[in-house]
């Protein structure tokens, strides 16, 4: 908190001008009485004045005992000393003021009783008169410094403490204030704690003429606040205030279950290992035995509860794996004992490290004859994963999802790692967490898998996620049972949202519909502003790119998938194929089955429809056939990527290979009716073929490039003329030929390119 200079001066009964001058001498950044002084400086000033006032009060009563001292007046002889001393003060005034105070006591000795009243009329004499009272030795030392008038005394008192601490200038930090715009002159004056008339004068000094009720813009207010020692702090948004209220209370934190993510290379047994823990068979339901989207499962153990996230191992799901690491507490890196470390294993390690998540290694498939756990440990060592057996800090557990060997030890290690992390949550706050997965179904509508991270999510809660909101109609756990609430670290499927949220979005519970609508409206407005705020303008750097884009070929796609996570992964994988001059455009992407509107959009855009794990109504098939739209539906990611790759390779500009066949020199030109100009030539090198492309060389430059319209030897049409023979060559189009030109015959081959 700060205090203005004029308020402090008024409190201390000191002229504001004097206090400002003294503070400026002390290098305190003040501009006038309206400037603010921080608490530390105010405390020093008050302390100095407080210590000064008692000393002054002590002097006043000391003047009364003076008569008693005069009554005792022991002897007149000392009077001779003062006279001698009075001559010395002029010479000895330099040494110390006390020397003058002691002698002056002789003057009151004549009749000191009348001396105290006279001091008030002449301002200079009073201080010296007060000093004689301090003539006793016990008083002379302390009051010696306090000889000046009250105002000067305050200034010196302020100066003494301020001189010792040098960092006083750094205290002039502006006071932050928050204002709701638009703000009137009167409201601003109230916020700045100054009179409205003073603020209007300040505005007039800046050539701004405004009345009390006139509104001021943000820039003007910011400059005014800065001049008056304030700083305009940003007003928190509605969403920021809501999120601030959702922050957990440190006094109400309770332990929560850990969230564990299984990561690793494809087919290394992540889902099978999780099945062995859950005692279920999930992998058998997945196409090709590969997990196609994130699943969240809860496992109740003897010593606690654990939530497992099963991320796909296919390399196309890089984005899903990264999201899994962001919501997890511990990563279980599954490595097959027979295959060892693979590219996706390294990728998973990088994601876990980037998220700062501890890693527990599960060396799977140790039941196989070719299993070699020691080799796996050696391969992990270069990636800073050193086994505890080798003196490192990484827990590595050999397991077998098939036989169940080592699973109990793995669970013990997970609980031990979770205990070290001291995971806690506040169950009293409104629920908040992360969207793990989302999809659209025909019978139940949008379904989202939510991971609760704080609070307790209950049926009937109003949830805001992304630009969507909705009231929870049902909560379903991983075993298909409906529940009434979900505690922290629980993963549940939620029904009731207005649409399909984006996987990875944060959700939180709000108290009423009005607040939810306001938050969603603000988010939608921000999203729209981001989309149109910065229109793309041409730059010199993009000029060549724009010209090239006008010529390149393009493959347009309408992509529909079953879940949001698959959508992110497929778009990421296909975007990496956008190379070699082929532009891959996603005209539309979405979650859910194919519809007639998708067919109409593809027909209007000349696009191909790609579906992944989606259905297609018979009416959609009829519409696709009628419009001539190509529709492809895939069940395996490998097949989808391979098909698109083949299509892009067909659109790639072919590679051009040129081979020089021969040269011929033009000897004479003939004008033949119905044919045009025919060049009489002699083949000087190689051969001239009828299907070759001819380049006309004149001197050191090339005149043109044309095809051969006719090739004759004497009167016969021939396909080829060998070196040393004469021939007649007719070229296509209007060509500027002269005698002496050289005709080069080239064979140009176009070779289809492949994506690398």
Structure description:
The chain has 756 residues and is of the alpha+beta class. It has six domains: 3-50, Arc Repressor Mutant, subunit A, CATH 1.10.10.2480; 183-228, no CATH class; 257-422, Rossmann fold; 432-530, Translation factors (Elongation Factor Tu (Ef-tu), domain 3, Beta Barrel), CATH 2.40.30.10; 552-651, Rossmann fold (3-Layer(aba) Sandwich), CATH 3.40.50.10050; 655-751, Beta Barrel (Elongation Factor Tu (Ef-tu), domain 3), CATH 2.40.30. Helices cover 35% and strands 27% of the residues. The chain contains 25 helices and 36 strands. It has a six-stranded mixed beta sheet with strand order 9-10-8-11-12-13, sandwiched between helices. The chain has a six-stranded antiparallel barrel with strand order 15-16-22-19-18-23. It has a six-stranded antiparallel β-barrel with strand order 28-29-35-32-31-36. A hairpin with a 3-residue loop joins strand 15 (432-441) and strand 16. Helix 2 packs parallel to helix 10 (150-163) and helix 16 runs parallel beside helix 17 (343-354). It is extended.
Low-confidence stretches: 55-171, 313-318, 533-548
Helix content: 25-40%
CATH architecture term of the largest domain: 3-Layer(aba) Sandwich
> Which class of the largest domain in CATH terms?
Alpha Beta
Descriptive labels:
extended, 6 domains, 756 residues, Arc Repressor Mutant, subunit A, six-stranded mixed sheet, Rossmann fold, 25 helices, alpha+beta, six-stranded antiparallel beta barrel
How would you summarize the topology of this molecule?
Elements: E1 2-4, H1 5-12, H2 16-25, E2 36-38, H3 39-62, H4 66-72, H5 80-92, H6 97-104, H7 106-110, H8 126-133, H9 137-140, H10 150-163, E3 175-178, E4 183-184, H11 185-192, H12 196-205, E5 215-216, H13 218-227, E6 230-233, H14 238-245, E7 254-255, E8 259-264, H15 270-278, E9 295-301, E10 304-310, H16 318-326, E11 330-336, H17 343-354, E12 359-364, H18 373-380, E13 395-398, H19 407-421, E14 424-425, E15 432-441, E16 445-454, E17 457-458, E18 462-465, E19 468-476, E20 482-483, E21 485-486, E22 491-497, E23 506-510, H20 513-532, H21 540-549, E24 554-561, H22 564-575, E25 583-591, H23 596-605, E26 608-612, H24 618-627, E27 631-634, H25 637-651, E28 655-672, E29 676-686, E30 688-689, E31 693-698, E32 701-713, E33 716-717, E34 720-721, E35 726-731, E36 742-751
Parallel strand pairs: 3-6, 8-10, 8-11, 11-12, 12-13, 24-25, 24-26, 26-27
Antiparallel strand pairs: 1-2, 4-5, 7-14, 9-10, 15-16, 15-23, 16-22, 17-21, 18-19, 18-23, 19-20, 19-22, 28-29, 28-36, 29-35, 30-34, 31-32, 31-36, 32-33, 32-35
Helix pairs in contact: 2-10, 3-10, 5-6, 11-12, 16-17, 23-24
